[in-house]
Amino acid sequence: MPLIPKTVIGRALALLWLLMCAGLLVFAFVQRDVHDMPVAFTWLMIGLTFPIGLPAAAIVGMLMSQLYAKFGLTYSPFMDLLPDWLAMVSLGYLQWFVVVPSIVRRLSRGERGT
């Protein structure tokens, strides 16, 4: 399974998707003082990485809350979202640009063989 799409369209879609994810990170930084920014950021990231983004956000959120409680860390809206962003972008990229194309290729090969 290649990590980078082979087709020009696939690479363009991957680049566009990554730019949208990076744009959300910029949005989070610029709007870090707005009290609803983490909610908007999380739902937009879930939209870009659905379905894998939903459990990823929940798991990272639970881990972060435990780290905050255990080590007495202070909450920072932007810094708190960085682990979410990293996990969701990584898993979302793998989902949309590695696993799904691989499944589509296997299914299309299987249909041709029958």
Could you explain the architecture of this structure?
This protein has four helices and no strands. The protein has 114 residues and is mainly alpha-helical. Helix 1 (8-30) packs antiparallel against helix 2 (37-49), helix 1 runs antiparallel to helix 4 (77-113) and helix 2 (37-49) packs parallel to helix 4 (77-113). The model has no long low-confidence stretch (mean pLDDT 93).
TL;DR of this structure?
The protein is an all-alpha fold and 114 residues long.
The main β sheet shows up as: none
Percent of residues in helical segments? over 70%
N to C succession of SSEs: HHHH
User: Got a strand count?
Assistant: 0
Radius of gyration: 17 Å
Keywords: Membrane, Transmembrane, Transmembrane helix
Transmembrane segments: 12-30, 42-65, 85-104
Give short descriptive properties of this protein.
single chain, 114 residues, mainly alpha, elongated
Secondary structure topology:
Elements: H1 8-30, H2 37-49, H3 53-71, H4 77-113
Helix pairs in contact: 1-2, 1-4, 2-4, 3-4
Keywords: Membrane, Transmembrane, Transmembrane helix
Transmembrane segments: 12-30, 42-65, 85-104
